[in-house]
Amino acid sequence: MKASYSDEQIIQGIKARDNLVLTYLYTEYQEEIIDFIMTNKGDRKEAEDVFQDSFVKFYQKIHKKDFVLKKSFDAYFKSICLNTWISALKLKNKQNLTDIIPDEIDDTDMILFYEYKNEQVRKLARKEFLKLGESCRRMLNMYFFQRKQMAEIAFLMDYQNAQIAMNKKHKCLKYLKELIINHPTFKSLMNE
């Protein structure tokens, strides 16, 4: 007999990384989500990616302090999967989305959609960051991630003073923004 879990047991099991609960969820939902996506212009690889991305999104959401499950796990998880697939389709411009978008999209669905867009922009930014020269990557890394002061950056990068370091940072940041803004993925995200 197949195990069954309450919504609370599922949430606690995911938080605890309980293999029985995780196996149950994959068994219970993976093929259903894959079948749905494959019947709506997706292939198996895309469907598996959507399922995995949705699972990660749910995992991240339940670890937020203010998380409250306002509907059943089943409905909530499927809405994450649906919105992830809709966003992926929009990015690919693969089909007319009116065929699979429900008549009413609630606030939670819209929040998830915007979170997906923001995550796609962050992924693009990380990808474009790697296209910068070594000097720019080092500069921006020290400033944004290591939180170093301009005087220290100037010293570490062998610039004459903090103002020169500041000017270099502005040039690097401007170039990174141009890379992101001019990327087709960014343009597509902004036109949604």
Model description:
By secondary structure, the protein is an all-alpha fold. The protein has helices spanning 7-15, 19-38, 44-62, 73-92, 107-129, 134-145, 150-156, 162-181, 184-190. The chain has two domains: 1-123; 130-192. 71% of the residues lie in helices and 0% in strands.
At a glance:
α2 (19-38) packs across α3 (44-62) and α6 packs across α8 (162-181). The chain has helices at residues 7-15, 19-38, 44-62, 73-92, 107-129, 134-145, 150-156, 162-181, 184-190. The chain is an all-alpha fold and 192 residues long.
* Quaternary form: single chain
Biggest pleated-sheet summary: none
Q: Kindly state the mean pLDDT as a whole number?
A: 81
Shape: elongated
Radius of gyration: 21 Å
Strand content: under 5%
Helix content estimate: over 70%
Low-confidence stretches: 94-101
Q: Whole-Å distance between the termini?
A: 45 Å
Q: Tally the helices: what do you get? A: 9
User: What is the N-to-C order of secondary-structure elements (H for helix, E for strand)?
Assistant: HHHHHHHHH
SS-based structural class?
A: mainly alpha
Number of domains: 2
How many beta strands in the DSSP annotation?
0
